[in-house]
Amino acid sequence: MNKRVIIRKENRIMSGLFGENRRLIQLDLSQPNRLLGQIYIGKVKNIVKNIQAAFIELGNGQIAYYSLQKNTSPLFTKAANGVNVCVGDEIVVQVEKEAIKTKEPVVTSKWSINGRYAVFVYGETFLHFSSKIKDGAWKKSIKEKIELLHLSGGILIRTNAQYVSEEILFQELNKLHDVFCGIKEKANYRTVYTCLYRPEKDYLTAIRDTYSNDLSEIITDDTEIFQELQQYFAENFPSDLQKLQYYEDKTLPLEKLYSFDLEIQRALQKQVWLKSGAYLIIEPTEALVAIDVNTGKAIKGKQKEETFLKINLEAAVEIARQLRLRNLSGMILIDFISMKAEEHRRKLMEEFQRLVSYDPIKTVVVDMTKLDLVEVTRKKEKPPLHELFS
Q: How would DSSP label each residue in 107-145?
């Protein structure tokens, strides 16, 4: 329990997740026009058969991309035939990706309601557990008890669930299920373009998605935000209320204590120095993100092969942090320093896979190519940090 969430307010609300030595791990900025997670009754405006896609209006002229291949069981509120999506149909959709540059937001009919311990998904019937939960006996016991509840929808049990009592988990499941069913019911009598659901604010979501056993404090210097947090935790996570702190020291402002501005400035730079004297070059492009590991001043007078491994392992730690901090996504190619020993290459890959597994956004280490480039994919959800400050 050594992570802290710091929330401050300037022109907009900013929340940072800090780890050991007050190093910034994740940064979330409130976005006034944020669509991610919102559920609408949308109207099909156009269908493009050659790419198996529809374009759906969410209201006020906002058009979103909808994959016909990935969405086979939509919830219609108005339909021409009730099976295939047609122009003019009205369906319930959720924004799963924000608009990125010239690309429209992406919506899905497999809409979901997220909690701290579970997720409900429309149009599915599964009961799955986070891959990070390894306790087979616990999963078997929980699965048997959930099946007795006869809840509708697909259910994903999140990693956080293993750290709380069954009573708390089942309370949240029932609460989420009520919200889930309420959305389906409202869809029957609301008009097209109605927003049926808005998720929690960005900083509340950041707190919710941080593993509760890792989180030691939530600190803010804003009275309004502190009162909102008190109410939110009292209603949702009363056992964590004692983690809330109101910061009142006027001689050392909160943003100075945690070096917010400096951390953001560093996260917008292309070059990232490592303690060894090596450095990273991070280059986001239209097609992919390229990351290059350079030895810099780290190899003078040293055994090169052993030093290369140490530098690469140090770089892997920082790259995992930078991906999350800068919210870099899509295809990522990492040029680690080439190593001859297969054992060293395997050790690097295993360690890097472990490091990215802590990222709340799905991140996959694909492979190391013949050119020693490590391929990584990270799910696109929100704009990268450099776009938010451009």
A: EESS-EEE-SSEEEETT---EEE-TT---HHHHHHHHHH
DSSP-derived 3-state class of residue 389: coil
Output the pLDDT for position 164. 85
CA distance 323 to 224: 31
Which tens digit of pLDDT belongs to each residue from 3-53?
888 898 877 788 888 887 778 888 888 777 788 899 999 999 999 999 999
Rounded to an integer, what distance in angstroms lies between the CA atom of residue 180 and that of residue 187? 11
* Site of tokens 């501005």: 261
Determine the Cα–Cα distance for residues 235 and 251; give it in Å rounded to an integer: 33
C-alpha to C-alpha distances, 188 to 84, 136, 154, 352, nearest whole angstrom: 19, 40, 21, 47
Q: Are 170 and 145 in contact (CB under 8 A)?
A: yes
CA distance linking residue 64 with residue 104, whole number of Å: 5
pTM for the predicted model, two decimal places: 0.81
**End-to-end alpha carbon distance in the chain:** 35
Retrieve residue 243's tokens: 């983690």
List the Cα angle 236/242/245 in 5-degree steps: 105
Q: How crowded is residue 145: how many other Cβ atoms within 10 Å of its Cβ?
A: 13
Q: Cα(175)–Cα(166) distance, rounded to whole angstroms?
A: 14
365 and 374 Cβ atoms separated by less than 8 Å: yes
Maximum C-alpha span of the chain: 75
Dist. CA 184–CA 198, nearest whole Å: 14
